[in-house]
Design goal:
The chain has 375 residues and is an alpha/beta fold. It has helices at residues 16-30, 44-51, 62-67, 69-78, 92-101, 122-129, 139-148, 174-183, 205-215, 238-250, 266-272, 287-294, 307-310, 324-335, 338-355, 358-370; strands at 4-9, 34-40, 57-59, 83-86, 106-111, 133-136, 156-158, 191-196, 222-227, 257-261, 275-278, 298-302, 316-319.
Length: 375
């Protein structure tokens, strides 16, 4: 078979799901596969394909994509593409239609979000019945997929996401790190406690703020750094951001927590932090967790969703996502013990190198793309 794949992502949003195709395209190329793309015209996804070196096909809407099915089949034939990979459940309408019209196509779907309700009605039985393999990004997600989708277990595989760990390796000298910390408002000698991610309900910023308030003077001098866009066009919920600002003021924390806004230099920001918190309530995977681990940081994550698959007592700490007291206790433990932070951070980076690299993820993906049909 040819080593070519068409990634379909018909989304106007911009999050981990939408970033995924362009993240893996360079590694696919390194491992001998050529990627093509289909996206909505004018979308950030289409732009990201171009940034990854792929000129995507574009359609004005999802409906128009369905009407273009015959043209897409012609494109697939002309470019000898035998594999289609969808990333949004709504894109499966198109993927399943193409696979129905040309049964030799191999259709893949990655559940990036974690299904929340059963999908076993006639439409979903038809659409998922055309799927060659459904890829779950964690074991927690896979268990939900097994219960929700009309597929036999052998057609649902867990394939952990991965990152390139090299950009996260520390590279700042002491002077550069001190300058970056000053720019983030971190006082000299303070323990910097950061929370990166979109500022939206479910990501846990509220419990983090409450935990900082409980931390008070029980720990060494500390400073909070909240990293994430503050405006809707940056993916955040502006009403929620306003609520966070109000709560910080009510708790007297406005001067002790910096709202850093959207940043493109997250690997370097990790170098400025001493502790990274990821209090999301129900992550399907936890990409931010492994990014912080790759940076050698001491990480506190929620003991829900997939995060416990990434962190254990030897690589970080876990706390219940709604329990501010538990978060404060974990922060206090790590804030008061620099040697423990260093030990956890070193072990965390080794875990990423062993289990969560982008190269390993793409190798597993190619194994699926290349396998003979089964299930």
């Amino acid at each position: 078979m040819s080593r070519k794949v068409l990634h379909i992502c018909l989304s106007n949003g911009w999050g981990g799901l939408e970033m995924y195709p362009s993240r893996i395209i360079p590694e696919l190329a390194r491992q001998g596969w050529q990627a093509h793309g289909l996206a909505l015209a004018g979308s950030r996804v289409a732009e990201s394909f171009r940034e990854a070196g792929v000129t995507p096909l574009t359609v004005p809407s999802k409906g128009r994509a369905l009407l273009a099915a015959r043209r897409l089949l012609g494109y697939l034939k002309a470019h000898d593409i035998g594999v289609i990979h969808c990333h949004k459940s709504s894109d499966l309408r198109l993927g399943a239609l193409l696979a129905t019209l040309r049964p030799s196509l191999r259709l893949f779907f990655t559940d990036h979000m974690g299904v929340t309700r059963p999908k076993k009605d006639p439409y979903h039985r038809w659409a998922y019945g055309r799927v060659t393999r459904l890829l779950s990004i964690s074991e927690a997600t896979r268990q939900r997929n097994l219960a929700a989708f009309p597929l036999p277990a052998e057609r649902i595989r867990r394939l952990y996401l991965g990152i390139d760990p090299e950009p996260y390796a520390p590279r700042l000298d002491d002077r550069e790190r001190a300058s970056l910390r000053r720019g983030l408002g971190v006082p000299e000698g303070a323990v910097a406690i950061g929370l990166p991610g979109r500022l939206t309900p479910g990501k846990g910023q509220e419990v983090w703020i409450e935990a900082l308030a409980r931390l008070g003077e029980a720990a060494p001098a500390w400073h909070g750094v909240l990293i994430g866009g503050l405006r809707a066009e940056e993916g955040s919920d502006e009403a929620y951001v306003a609520r966070l600002r109000t709560r910080l003021a009510e708790l007297g924390l406005a001067s002790r927590v910096t709202l850093a806004g959207f940043r493109r230099d997250l690997p370097r920001l990790f170098e400025a932090l001493d502790i990274v918190c990821v209090p999301s309530r129900n992550e399907a995977f936890g990409l931010t967790v492994i990014e912080a681990m790759a940076a050698g940081k001491a990480v506190i994550g929620s003991d829900s969703g997939a995060i416990p698959e990434l962190l254990d007592a030897g690589t970080g700490r876990l706390a219940a996502p709604e329990d501010a007291d538990a978060w404060a206790a974990a922060m206090a433990e790590l804030a008061g013990d620099a040697a423990l932070r260093a030990r956890l951070g070193k072990a965390a980076r080794q875990r990423v190198l062993a289990d969560f690299t982008l190269a390993a993820h793409v190798a597993g993906l190619i194994e699926e793309y290349s396998a003979t049909r089964s299930g």
